[in-house]
Design brief:
Mean pLDDT: 77
Helix content: 40-55%
Shape: elongated
Structural class: mainly alpha
Order of helices and strands: HEHEEHHEHHEEHHH
Strand order of the largest sheet: 1-3-2
Number of domains: 2
Largest sheet: 3 strands, antiparallel
């Protein structure tokens, strides 16, 4: 095991920072890299703080990522550029992320398995309940499919490789990544039911505007 301060540890630190700048580190993805991160996390935090970043590490859930540190007067004076870009999400994508987070909370409350795996059709049904009815079913399914692809791209869903035909022909399988818990927190989730009426009103209003055209 490389000692902190040794050339090997310095190499490990550099590789960890580079990997984190590219995306999320998962314990399940590379156990040795995860152990190196746990061992060097204090040095990683110090290193990325100079870049205006903060290390978010959840050892129990097995993931780590970088986010922009809250701006301070010193940061604003030095005009540190933002290395982690903010992403603007469409309303349906935001809604689907919230629905998946609620599904994950219900899954965790039930105990048992640690991986929440849903079929494509199950995810489609989660969102369909909050969308206005449309005559073009195929177009609606295609739109939801595009939202799913965006969430996979963001890293909150992982499309699983099929090990043969899915029972019942329900479509592709997706794993809900537990990092979603870091982006939709418990307090937001507690207020979630109260937001659904506003979501439905928003979506219905959008459908009405489209129908008036």
């Amino acid at each position: 095991m490389a000692e902190q301060g040794s050339p090997a540890a310095t190499d490990d630190l550099s590789m960890l920072v580079i990997t984190l700048l590219k995306g999320v580190i998962y314990q399940e993805g590379d156990a040795s890299q995860w152990q190196a991160l746990l061992r060097l996390q204090a040095r990683v935090r110090d290193y990325v703080s100079v870049l205006g970043l903060e290390l978010i590490l959840d050892e129990s859930e097995g993931y780590a990522f970088l986010c922009s540190r809250p701006a301070t007067g010193e940061d604003e004076g030095g005009k540190i550029p933002r290395l982690v870009a903010r992403r603007s999400l469409s309303f349906p994508v935001s809604l689907l992320l919230a629905l998946l987070r609620k599904k994950l909370a219900e899954f965790d409350a039930g105990g048992g398995e640690t991986r929440l795996i849903l079929t494509r059709d199950e995810i489609v049904e989660l969102l369909r309940l909050f969308l206005p009815e449309r005559s073009n079913e195929a177009r609606l399914t295609d739109q939801i499919e595009s939202h799913l692809n965006k969430i996979v791209e963001l890293g909150f869903l992982r499309k699983l490789k099929p090990a043969g035909a899915v029972a019942g022909g329900e479509g592709s399988l997706y794993e809900v990544r537990r990092i979603l818990k870091a982006f939709v927190d418990a307090q937001w989730l507690a207020d979630f039911d109260g937001r659904l009426a506003a979501y439905q009103a928003h979506l219905t209003g959008k459908a009405g505007e489209s129908g008036d055209e």
